Amino acid sequence: MTSIKKDPVLVVLQLSGGNDALNTVVPYGDPLYADNRPSVRVPDDQVLKLSDYVGLNPNMGPMKQLYDEGKMAIIQGVGYPNPNRSHFRSMDIWHTCEPDKVGTEGWLGRALKEIDPNAENVLTGVNFGRGLPRALAMPGVPVASVGNLATYGVLTGIEEDDQRADALDVFSRIYSPAMGRGGVVDYLSRTGMDALKGADILSTAPEMYSSTVEYGGDVVGQYMRNIAQTHLAGFGTRVLYTTAPYNSFDTHAGELQAHAKLWSETSQAVGDFMDDLREHDATDNVTLLVFTEFGRRVHDNGSGTDHGSGGMAFVIGENVKGGLYGEYPSLEADKLLEGDLHFNNDFRSIYSTLLENWMGLDAQPLVNGSFEKFDFI
Question: What is the DSSP string of 262-291?
């Protein structure tokens, strides 16, 4: 008997807005946590403990279960040199791996170019959500960007030339914020029709899908369901991307209630996604990355937290060696960066690990440099 090796698939869930690291992976064992968070903190007795020092937010039960199964790696203190507190600039840096200039090519766009250099499969890369994340943008690389498979119709079922022209106009308006108008014109000339074809094919995924898993009705739940549907449809998609509702993790005020809801929905969606793939015996070639563009400030502002640095990331999958990676950044006042956590681990180390150890690609040209890898895969 011969075994058929499946191609590795990378799923990315971006937590837009800057997730509060301190209230996600909570350093409950450090008295400085309570000192800095007089109003916006997770009570010690509610923390889902991982060690004598840290634990997960109490609304992350399904992800805690994955951690307990040894299937979730938590990378602590993630960031980059000279952190930027602007959502847009910081996200650009994460998306392009260009900390010193504004980049136009996304790290995953470059990866897709390596995986499918001749764009033979119009569904090698798929995004769920409005617009195209810059991480996926690359001339000559078609990426279908879909709002929701269940209601998707804007770029499907188009037969007449004028309808296709209208659809391409919509397409260009969606993609322009990520690439700039000039980039979009070039991108469309090479990939626009391919992306339309991809959308037509994607619309068939729900009818091929059956599952006993009931995802939540929130946006993250529905997008993760869409990703499962696409993966299970067998389109040959290698990179699947989605974003939590735009800037939803930007918790300047009312954080305790908002953050609890966000993590309840996000953790449940991640748990449902893994359950769904397991039900279909389809987890063996999927790895999920969950990241955010920056953390929040160490001291709360009375109701929420403001933009900071030193966040964290999660890597989840059957092939992941679970556990805590990297040192938790110090909360001592003289070791903070203008009131923020210092980063201990460059985000490009995570990318490099995923690209080389999981996707089988040479990471250096894709992340613009050589970075020490982790051993979570």
Answer: HHHHHHHHHHHHHHHHHHTT--TTEEEEEE
